[in-house]
Amino acid sequence: MEGTSLCLSFVILLLQCSPSVPVTVSTTKHKVEVREFSDAVLTCLFRTERDQSPRIEWKKRGKDVSFVYFDGQFRGPFEGRATISGATVTLQRVTQEDAGEYRCEISAPLDSVSLGETNVTLKVLVPPHTPSCQIPGSAVTGSVVQLRCQDQQSIPPATYSWFKNNMPLSQPRQANATYVMDSRTGVLEFRTVAKEDTGRYSCLASNGVGPAKMCEGKHMTIEDVNITAIVAAVVVVCLVVVVCGCGGVILHRNGFFSRHRGRSFWISQCHGADHISSQTLHTTEDTSNVNYIPPPQEPQDFKHTQSFML
Q1: Considering the domain boundaries, does residue 281 fall inside one?
Q2: Which of 4, 69, 165, 221 has its CB surrounded by the most CB atoms within 10 Å?
Q3: What are the residues whose beta carbons fall under 8 Å from the beta carbon of 195, sequence distance 6 or more?
């Protein structure tokens, strides 16, 4: 009897000393993925130690923390399009603006640990949209040609496949293939395009969320290089260069590009040679209409007399 009483007392002591369970918060799914315009369920489960009426709050984290559910009602853009059961929230007709990280907070003031929380990340999936395609209408043989396809709205990002004349183009496996195709970027590149590549091309975007979408096809024509036209053009250009060069040389030799201002001329006169500048020449030319009176000449006998006297 004494041993039994001792064991019972020991068990009671352990129960009294063991800590009570504080408020705990958890979720069944930390990452939720739903299609755009469908409903998203953000699960939040909690258990309290003593408090039977804890405070429930939902917040959305972004650049700033905003309230989703507070003081018993939904706030902001969630007002009128969300419901709550216990602490689990259902968001109706979600869009890309609703995607992000949410936090469920349970506050139990009567518990030894009064606050608990859990996080749920919402990802809104968007099916493919009709991709934009860039397909050249024509090209010459031997050149590098790129066809581009892109859908910027699909989530997750779309993958791309190309069609020629409504038949899918297979991914080339040979190193010497004439084209390469990147299903991630949507680029179809012909390294050396040939006449056989002429056809109607279209691109299909898919991401597994919704039906795949294809852009409108466009015809691409590959033409041979016109060697005759290129040679003729080169000959014409060469002739023009030669003619212009010869003309410039002839004009330069004829003094067309020389500067005459300030040059000097020697003009022979009956009484000797006077050195005059071009400015004086121009002045003389400008006064050509005025009656010119030559200077008086000394008599020859007088000159001889002066020479004799000297």
Answers
A1: no
A2: 69
A3: 141, 222, 223, 224
Q: Strand, helix or coil at 224?
A: coil
Nearest to 39 by CA among 85, 87, 90, 86: 90
Measured CA to CA in angstroms, residue 190 lies from 157, 193, 267 at distances of: 24, 5, 78
Would you say residue 84 lies in a domain?
yes
Residue 69 burial by Cβ neighbours in a 10 Å radius (0-12, 13-18, 19+)? buried
Residue where one domain finishes, among candidates 78, 101, 125: 125
Give the Cα separation of 261 and 46 in Å (integer): 104
Check whether residue 96 and residue 161 sit in a common domain.
Answer: no
What's the number of domains the chain is made of?
2
Both tokens of 28, joined, read 């069944």
User: CA-based angle 112:116:122, to the nearest 5?
Assistant: 175
| Tokens, residue 194 | 């040939």
Contact 213, 151 (CB under 8 A): yes
Cβ(43)–Cβ(102) below 8 Å = no
Q: Which of 101, 125, 149 is the last residue of a domain?
A: 125
Q: What is the DSSP letter of 295?
A: P
pTM score above 0.90: no
The percent of residues in the chain predicted with pLDDT above 70, rounded, is 67
Residues 178 and 109 in one domain: no
Mean pLDDT of 90-116: 90
Which range marks the domain in which residue 62 is found? 21-125
111 vs 293, residue with greater confidence: 111
Rounded CA gap, 103 and 93, in Å?
20
Q: Where are the alpha helices (DSSP H) in 111-211?
A: none
**Residue written as token pair 């020991």:** 10
Per the structure block, which two tokens stand in for 34?
A: 């739903």
Q: Look up the CATH number of the domain holding residue 148.
A: 2.60.40.10
CA atoms within 13 A on the CB side of 220: 24
